[in-house]
Amino acid sequence: MAQPAISMDAHQEHHHDTFKLLGFWIFLVTDCIIFACLFAVYAVLRTHTDGDLTGRELFEVKGFTAETLILLASSFTSGLASLAMQKGSKKHLLGWLTVTVLLGLSFVGLEITEFAKMASEGAAISTNAFLSSFFTLVGTHGLHVSFGLIWMTGVMVQIGRYGIDAHTKEKVTIVGLYWHFLDVVWIFIFTVVYLLGVM
Amino acid sequence: MHSHENHGSAKTYILGFLFSLILTALPLWLVIQHVMNKALLTVAILLIAVLQLIIQFFFFMHIGEGEKPRYHVMALILGAVMVFTIVAGSIWIMTFNSQVH
Predict the structure, then answer these.
(1) Average pLDDT, stretch A87-99?
(2) What is the pLDDT along chain B (101 residues), one digit of tens a residue?
(3) B46 touches A at CB < 8 Å
(4) pLDDT of res. A2
(5) Who among B16, B52, B82 is closest to A187 (CB)?
(6) Domain boundaries, position B47
(7) How many structural domains does chain B have?
(8) The domain spanning residue A189 has which CATH number?
(9) Where are the transmembrane segments (chain B) (predicted)?
(10) Distance from CA of B46 to the nearest CA of A (A)
């Protein structure tokens, strides 16, 4: 009698996990739509510079290349973290998540420095339509990364406390998915904003 | 081993990382060296970005894995249609606005 009941429970638990993951994918799709709107605005307004404060004038190849490589490396290290988790190594999982958070922090640091430098050169969010759309698009991505850092730190605390179980496993998988997604969005910021900007 | 626990190996992550590095360096080099005219260059770097997107979807986010039916892939396809409509539609419709240009 007990046997079928247990397998029923496991079955339901399993479905529950699958639905949670699907729910997160649907969130990512809606987040994609937010970014699509911001990209569309940027694409329309990027020529509206009202003078010579253009991307070519303001963007620094060294700076945005560094940001791109750091975020890409952090996406890779968050992948290594989930591999360590599958092997059951709590030490390596926490280690790779720490590296990911540190890379993410340096990305946000570089971005804040870049924004502050632009503002000090007279290129602020209210200067022209191009800069309004630029700061909104890139800033929204930066906020996503900052939020991801807080989230990932929270997950690390939970792993420290509860170890690797079905629950924390799911949390690491979902925050990892979010982190990879942010790198995918950045590919298009790198290409559409920065590369087309300095072209 | 359940299929849903299969989330790639070290090899897929390293390959994905290497491909992404190449697909980041290549458009950067093309733009800095001005190897072709502006229109062609724009198309080329956008195509390279889409290629990197596909690589990261498969090598980092493992979208082909998981149980069938793969509802998340359907959600992504719907998302792609909406993203294309919003971006291409906005750019196209705004070309009719005399205030722009």
Answers:
(1) 96
(2) 344 445 678 999 999 999 999 999 999 999 999 888 999 999 999 999 999 999 999 999 988 777 777 888 999 999 999 999 999 999 999 988 876 55
(3) yes
(4) 46
(5) B52
(6) 1-67
(7) 2
(8) 1.20.120.80
(9) 12-32, 38-61, 73-94
(10) 7
How would DSSP label each residue in chain A? -HHHHHHHHHHHHHHHHHHHHHHHHHHHHHHHHHHHHHHHHHHHHTT--SSS--HHHH--HHHHHHHHHHHHHHHHHHHHHHHHHHTT-HHHHHHHHHHHHHHHHHHHHHHHHHHHHHHHTT--TTT-HHHHHHHHHHHHHHHHHHHHHHHHHHHHHHHHHH-S-HHHHHHHHHHHHHHHHHHHHHHHIIIIIIIHHH-
Does A199 touch chain B if contact means CB atoms closer than 8 Å? Answer: yes
Range of the domain at A103: 2-198
Quick one: B62 and B18 in the same domain? yes
pLDDT interval class at A163 (50, 70, 90): very high
